[in-house]
Amino acid sequence: MNGSEFRSRLVSSVNYVFFLCALAFLPTSAASADNEVAPLNYFLHSYGPASMPTMHLGWVFVALLAVIFVIISALLVVAVFRNPPSEDSHQFGREDEGMPWIYIGTGISACILFALAIYTLITLNAIAKPTHAPALTLTVTGYDWWWKVEYEDDDPTRSFVTANEIHIPVGQPVLVKLKSADVIHAFWVPMLAGKTQMIPGLTNQQWLQADGEGVYSGQCTQYCGVQHAHMGLEVVAQTEDEFRTWQDAQRQSVVTVSAIDVNAGQKLFLDQCAGCHAIRGTEAVGAHAPDLTHLKSRRLIAAGLLTNTPEHLVQWITHAQDLKPGARMPSMVLTATEISTLSAFLSTLN
Ligand code: HEC
Ligand SMILES: [Cu+2]
Description:
Elements lengths: L2 H29 L20 H30 L17 H30 L7 E8 L2 E6 L8 E4 L1 E5 L4 E7 L4 E4 L7 E3 L5 E5 L5 E7 L11 E7 L1 H12 L8 H13 L27 E2 L4 E2 L2 H14 L12 H11 L4
Parallel strand pairs: 1-5, 4-10
Antiparallel strand pairs: 1-2, 2-3, 5-8, 6-7, 6-9, 9-10, 11-12
Helix pairs in contact: 1-2, 2-3, 5-7
Bound molecules: heme C (HEC) and copper (II) ion (CU).
Copper (II) ion binds next to loops.
């Protein structure tokens, strides 16, 4: 092998290894980010029996495929540097010469793929059903671009509706029925469970369970229009007591506070917002926007876009189309007095 030939072989094998390393490390560098920075990080963290088996499956896949990658790369580099048996490098050996290697390679690959398929089926079976009957059933309906969350109860007066924030008791399996009001969405809270599609006219279901208290981010994972990226949700896992307290508070209708500005704000709400939004205990029964009965109890507004502060509420109400262009809520044109009375009213929605 002369010098220039050696160099060109070296360059081609180094290029190959670089290229594959880049492919291999792209996803891992994102996955190693901090939990807070990468809230959907499901490759390193899992907090319940509906997601743990799939995370382990992912680890086994990556480990095995990394080993295969290293072996294949080494073989390739050896092949590039091996001198061809014939002096004329353009003349190949007899056609059937390498056949045993092809049989061996195909045989090994088939065995590995078969084993992975079996392991995948075992994993699917492990997450198919919770170990005991779900303690709680709720229905989540996807809308462009937010989530309606209904807590059912045999006694309909104890059922209630909220939006974008799901509370569950820790350590208990929860059954989630999934629907869509418009296009296909998909419900995904990666640290707790896999993805399930929400298809108009169908009710799918999945279960999830959080084994630790905390807030778990979720995201729509089926492209559903311009604001798909801003269709987030949160699952808040609480102790049984905290969960019951939250649930009892959510069941309450609003109690109208008698104060001049609050009453003016409520009147304005009924005039301008009630066509879309509902507030239990008032005449506002709009069904195509988030229920605002306990708006203040939520951590975030507009499906994860903003934190729920009085300033953000005003910004959202007056500039919804700048903050979330295309959202199904217009930017409302309000005077300063209207904004202050409306804010006074909204601040009573505990
Ligand atoms: C044409 C229907 C419509 C009208 C009118 C409307 N909204 Fe909305 N509103 C929506 C929709 C749809 C969303 C969800 C937007 C999203 O997140 O994509 C929303 C979201 C909100 C949110 C955030 C709720 C949450 O939990 O994320 C608040 C607060 C809100 N609207 C307040 C108001 C107020 C106050 C008015 C009246 C001044 C009003 N809206 C008028 C449709 C409407
Ligand atoms: Cu979507």
